Structures are given as C-alpha cells and as structure tokens.
Backbone:
C-alpha cells in the first residue's frame, strides 16, 4: 500500500534563503512553485529524486522549540552515496561543516547539518552490512 515518502514540508522564515540552501548548498533542484492569486509564492517544491520532494512554505513566524524530549518532528535524513565526498562538497559550497562523519550504531555513516531555520538534517550513507539492509523486508 505505502511505497515511499512523497514529501516533507517545512514552513520557513526566509523563502529565498532556504531555496538557496537546499538548491545551491545541498544540490537539490527546484521542481515547481504554486502561487497565490496575487502571484506570491504559496509553496515551492524541491526535488530529491524521481518521487521524493521537500515542500517549502514561506513566511514562518513562530519557531517551535525542539528538545531531545519533544514529541513530533526530530530531523530529516537524506541518503547520500558517499558521505565523505558529500561533506567535502558542502564545505566547498561554503557550509560550515565541523568534524567528520561518524559511524552510527546502525552501521551507517552519518553527518549532521542545519538548514537556515535550524532544522536538523542528517546525511546518511547506507552501508551493505547496516541494520537497515540486513533487516530490509523489500
């Protein structure tokens, strides 16, 4: 019945700054925009792969506190083919990337960044012997 995640959506404070981060820094492509009747952006779709997107909604005002005990959204995880090359590329694109990728307890390489609104983004390289692979039902 469920075949994947279609999109995740963020309300952002500064739409252009967020678009720049997700396209120029992370390398996603802007797919399309939906506009209000007055021509202002209602939402912007950024494409991750053929069927997966990030939606950005402009004009966010109230930042919700996120703690280790918060219920609800915790982070967005994006799959990368080569974690070390990805971090190098992000540094070349001007993103502050302290430290190096680490091996997670699930057997995958991971590295964490933040978007302009402070949302946590995990970059993950799935390894052949990871818990995700050895426990996959597909």
Residues:
């Amino acid at each position: 019945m469920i075949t994947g995640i279609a999109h995740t959506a963020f309300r952002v404070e500064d739409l252009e700054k967020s678009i720049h981060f997700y396209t120029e820094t992370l390398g996603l492509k802007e797919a399309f925009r939906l506009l209000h009747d007055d021509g202002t952006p209602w939402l912007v779709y950024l494409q991750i792969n053929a069927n997966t997107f990030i939606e950005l909604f402009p004009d966010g005002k109230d930042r919700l506190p996120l703690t280790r005990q918060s219920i609800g959204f915790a982070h967005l995880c994006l799959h990368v083919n080569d974690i070390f090359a990805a971090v190098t590329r992000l540094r070349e694109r001007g993103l502050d990337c302290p430290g190096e990728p680490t091996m997670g307890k699930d057997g995958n390489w991971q590295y964490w960044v933040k978007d302009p609104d402070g949302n946590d983004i995990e970059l993950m390289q799935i390894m052949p012997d990871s818990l995700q692979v050895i426990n996959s039902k597909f």
